[in-house]
Amino acid sequence: MKTILEVNSVSKKYSLSGINPAYQTLSGSMTNFFRGGKSNEREFWALKDVSFEVKEGDTLGIIGRNGAGKTTLLKIISRITSPTSGRITGRGKVTSLLEVGTGFHLELTGRENIYMNGSILGLKKKEIDAKLEEIVEFSGVGEFIDNPLKFYSSGMQLRLAFSIGAHLEPEILAIDEVLAVGDSLFQQKCIEKMTSIVKSGRTILFVSHNMQALKSICNKAIVLDTGKKIFEGTAEAAVDYYNTEHRLQGQTINLLDLPRGKYAGELIFRELKFATPTFQYGEDISFSVLLKTINPSARKDNVIFGANVIDRFGNNIYHISNILTNQPFIHGSDSDEYQFSIKSNLRPGQYRLTLCLTVNDVVQDFFTELIDFIIEEGNPYGFSKTGFIQGMVFTGFEIWKK
Amino acid sequence: MNSKDHTFVIDANSRKPLNLKEIWEFRELLYFFAWRDIKVKYKQTFLGVTWAFIQPFLMMLVLNIFFGQMLHFPSETLPYSVFAFTGLIIWNIFSSGTINSSNSMLTNAVIIKKNYFPRIILPLAAVIVSLFDFLVSFILFGGLLIWFRVLPDVLRFIAFFPFAVLIALITTVGTGVIIGAMSIRFRDFRIVMPFLIQLLLFITPVIYPISAISNKTLYHVLALNPMAGAISLARAALTHNPVDWIIIGISSGMAVFIFILGMLIFKKNETLISDLA
Fold first, then answer.
1. pLDDT tens-digit profile of B91-126?
2. How close is the nearest chain A Cα to the Cα of B176, in Å?
3. Is A5 inside a domain boundary?
4. How, if at all, do strands A172-175 and A94-97 pair?
5. A319 in a structural domain
6. How many CA atoms lie within 13 A of A116 on its CB side?
7. Which residues face A45 on adjacent strands?
């Protein structure tokens, strides 16, 4: 088997501005200039020294928590962003499907959007001409194809978007978490289509949180954690490794050095402590957070926390906040600890926690789906096979014969 | 050619020059971006493409009433309406082209972040949209020439007018890619551009002829603005007046300079674009 893609100690550094947003303003860089070029930039390595090889016809799964560097890796391989150091050699055309339907315009018809999006994904007009019927057929939008996209339901838009993606046939196809969306029947159809692409000898790089899909599509996989490759092997082994060995960073999570979005950042999350390493079924999800003051002169009254519990399919299950109960906090010193406790009837499995901090209605810090926790096997009914029970939550019930 | 034979290398330390071959490979995408913007721009409006006529036409009417009829601006042997309209349609290539390209990076930020293509395609497509508007208003321009019985020498017209448009285009692409690249780093450009363009309008001979400047030094300094040469030449295409080739030379030289500078600045910032967009 010939090597089709060789990734050689690739690293990617992002500069994060502490208080300023990631983009610059003229006044910002002028002030920096007059201060002698000292900016308050912080560095963050999205990828650190990652190497691997992909052989022709291989399908490589890339596993890791959000923020582990999966998308950055795909972006570098498909040349969307350039590596800070390292080298990649490959053979053939690379197409990345990081999102479906990019470039879709609501005023254009379905047909016009197929051309637009297909072209952005690197298809030639001739190739789109040849595949057009098949794409329309696959999407099932039927006669709507010549109506403007704005008259489509969101489901139809998504199906059309995905159909274009499913008909790409480059030598190397890099797919990011795109299966997370869409109805499950259509998802299944897409997975089948992708499996048939693999069988035709294409090479696929596949990022997903859907471990079942990953195992059925990929033969090999790597696991990334905070930008480093920590496991490489068969897809089965990698999923097992990720699920058992590496599912959590531990009971106490240092939030200070995690990647952040463009928020005010005057008061930020410092640390999160779960009450127990994993939770039992039915147990309250308890954790506490500590904050860090970045700008001491900023106001610290009217502190509002928001937290969401999200399942691995992205469903937002619980939303809690002290604004809902009208109890804003005043942040005294950084030793203040805020305790959270969520009543839970979630089914066993892996969940993600979203944390948001606002002061006086200004978002200061926000973590989305970066923090994972586990609810251990178990159910309230004393039933032996938890996996047999359906539903996102286990509720109390009674069934009797009158 | 089987693309499997094609080997690619991504190296953090390599510095590539502007890849013309790659831009050529992506020419269809360039076409689709321009096509989409033109289509979307006119699809929803009640008057559609007619807008491309109406804007310069109304502008010309107002200018004609104030500067032509009331203030008797000189107009180089042309009827003032024709004089002003010629200036306006050439100027509009530049003004709308530059504003469109400075916006192109931010309005397409989502696409930039998720897909690879030579980024320069976006400002180029924006300039093509302006060129399309120009071609539409050119039809009206023809009507105007017939109406005022301005009958240019055909050979002279064919030699001068496209050259004038070319100077305008080269300048527009140059400034467009500079502003496009800079607007990614400094969002200020987005706010400041419409204002700057308005200022520039006054130091460009759009409503007055460059020959009206009597100070010789100032006259040549004004030609450093490539649009001054482009507009003068476009007007000269309609008349039998002698052409001041020094002015055209200075302007063409500046246009090429801005173009090359634009390419260099864009190339230097290209890798930053997807990280900052």
1. 999 999 999 988 898 889 889 988 999 999 999 999
2. 19
3. no
4. parallel
5. yes
6. 26
7. A13
